[in-house]
Amino acid sequence: MAKQNKAPQPQAQSKKASKEQKTEKLFETGEGAPAKITPRLKIHYEQVVRPQLQQQFNYKNPMQVPRIEKIVINMGVGKGEQEPKTLENAVRDLALISGQKPVVTTAKRAISNFRIRKGHRIGCKVTLRGDRMYVFLEKLINVVLPRIRDFSGISPRSFDGRGNYSLGLREQILFPEIVYDQVDRLRGMDITICTTAETDEEAFALLKAMGLPFRSS
Question: Is the pTM of this model over 0.70?
Answer without folding.
Answer: yes
